[in-house]
Design goal:
Elements: H1 2-33, H2 39-50, H3 55-71, H4 76-95, H5 105-125, H6 133-144, H7 148-166, H8 169-190, E1 196-202, H9 206-217, E2 222-230, E3 235-247, H10 248-261, E4 266-272
Antiparallel strand pairs: 1-3, 1-4, 2-3
């Protein structure tokens, strides 16, 4: 229980920082200067420019269709955290007193994208989203097999095209620059949207861990037959080694699960540079994984 509470506090603190970073990017840089980002955030900014409605109201409303799509492809926990995070972001945007600090358009696009991207990336690392376009990409990938990156790219091409027609070509071009910086900041923060890690777990409760991985997380695994060796005499005993390949959000969930079942478990985490074949869960998805 102590570990569970600690993890909840860590995730809450991370989401709070994510909201603050995103709100700084929006209120200090993008909103006062009419710059857009991609995704749902960009839609909300564009609509706030076209209609006399505050962005803090438009943002949660524009997120609803994407959260509905997320209902079908992500976990209830992730969906609830995302709803709360988006609502808190809207409130912070509405009530904060941040003011613009520069009129230099290049600085606005660069630092606005950096702050917003860092906020979105931290939210994803904590198992939530601040921008629902990722959920749309996941939904279309699950249902029709479209590439997540292609869906998000097409979505933003349409958005920036509309921006060029309704606002100005210059605004659209600076918004594209903002989006590029944001996407790179997101990638840097979460170390890749489709970045995977490998976990090797050695535990006396390996059978229980295997069962919980399958029943609670829908997580497949590869099991190696190993031998434990220790001490000066090299004494050994048979032991099963659990090997899984997961995205970074699921890695955090597996660490929590293992901590709850065996605090003395030996866990190795390592980067995976390339994944081919099998089934690997996408970030924020709840589809089962094979390893």
């Amino acid at each position: 229980m102590h570990i569970k509470h600690k993890n909840i506090l860590q995730e809450s603190a991370q989401l709070a920082v994510a909201v603050v970073l995103a709100s700084i990017g929006l209120k200090v840089f993008l909103l006062p200067n009419g710059f857009l980002d991609g995704g749902v955030t960009g839609i909300a900014i564009l609509l706030s420019k076209l209609f006399p409605v505050d962005m803090s109201i438009i943002l949660p409303l524009a997120s609803i269709p994407f959260l509905i799509a997320g209902y079908f492809i992500t976990t209830k926990r992730i969906l609830i955290k995302s709803i709360v995070s988006i609502a808190v972001l809207a409130l912070v945007i509405h009530f904060d007193n941040f003011s613009s600090i520069t009129e230099d358009k290049l600085i606005i696009a660069t630092f606005g994208g950096l702050f917003l991207g860092a906020g979105i990336g931290m939210a994803i690392r904590a198992g939530a989203v601040l921008d629902g376009s990722e959920l749309l990409g996941l939904y279309l990938n699950e249902r029709f097999g479209f590439s997540i990156g292609s869906v998000i790219l097409l979505f933003n091409i349409v958005l920036f095209g509309i921006t060029a027609m309704l606002l100005s070509t210059e605004a659209a071009m600076y918004s594209i620059l903002t989006y590029l910086v944001t996407s790179k900041a997101v990638d840097f923060t979460i170390q890749g949207f489709e970045n995977y890690v490998g976990l090797m777990i050695v535990s006396k409760n390996h059978q229980m861990i295997q069962s919980e991985l399958q029943s609670r997380l829908g997580q497949g695994a590869t099991i190696y037959q190993g031998v434990k060796g220790y001490g000066k005499t090299g004494a050994s005993q048979p032991n099963e080694i659990i090997h899984v390949v997961v995205n970074r959000i699921d890695a955090r969930r597996i660490h929590r699960l293992v901590d709850n079942l065996d605090t003395e478990a030996f866990v190795i985490e390592f980067d995976v540079n390339h994944v081919k074949g099998g089934k690997v869960r996408k970030l924020l998805s709840r589809t089962a994984v094979s390893a």
